[in-house]
Design a protein that fits this description.
Radius of gyration: 18 Å
Mean pLDDT: 90
Helix content: 55-70%
Shape: elongated
Order of helices and strands: HHHHH
C-alpha cells in the first residue's frame, strides 16, 4: 500500500494562507498596474500605502502596531490628496517612502502572524476542523 504524502501542519498552512490571502492579495492592484503600465502611479502608491496600513493595523493585536498604522494611513491619505489634486508641489521620493511603508507594515505583521498562527496555533480560518 502506498504511503500518504504528509500535508503541512495546520499551523503552517494557516500562516501561509494568511500571508497569501490577508497580506499579499490586497497588493494585487499594484502588481497589475506595474504589469500594465511599467510602474504604479504616485497616487496609486499613496492610496495603497494608506489603505494597506490601516487594514493591516486594524487586524493587529498590537496597540503599538495599530497606532503606527493609523499614523502611516493619515500621512499617506494627505499625500494622496496632494497628488490627486494635481498640486504643483513635487513630492520627492514618494515611490520610495510608500514602498518602504508597505514593506515595513508587511514584515512586522508577518512576524506577528507567525506568532499567532505557528507559535500560538490560532487558526486563520476554521474550515470545519475538529478540535482536540
Amino acid at each position: 500500500m502506498a504511503k500518504r504524502i504528509p500535508a503541512l501542519p495546520n499551523e503552517w498552512g494557516d500562516f501561509f494562507t494568511c500571508v497569501l490571502l490577508h497580506m499579499l492579495l490586497p497588493l494585487l492592484p499594484l502588481l497589475i498596474e506595474f504589469w500594465m503600465k511599467g510602474a504604479p502611479t504616485d497616487s496609486t502608491l499613496a492610496i495603497t500605502a494608506s489603505m494597506y496600513s490601516i487594514a493591516i493595523g486594524l487586524s493587529s493585536r498590537s496597540a503599538a502596531m495599530l497606532g503606527l498604522c493609523i499614523l502611516v494611513s493619515i500621512i499617506f491619505s494627505v499625500v494622496f490628496g496632494i497628488v490627486s489634486a494635481g498640486s504643483s508641489t513635487q513630492l520627492s521620493d514618494l515611490k520610495l517612502y510608500s514602498g518602504l511603508s508597505i514593506l515595513f507594515v508587511f514584515i512586522i505583521h508577518t512576524l506577528e502572524r507567525y506568532n499567532r498562527h505557528v507559535v500560538d496555533c490560532v487558526p486563520f480560518w476554521d474550515f470545519g476542523r475538529v478540535s482536540n
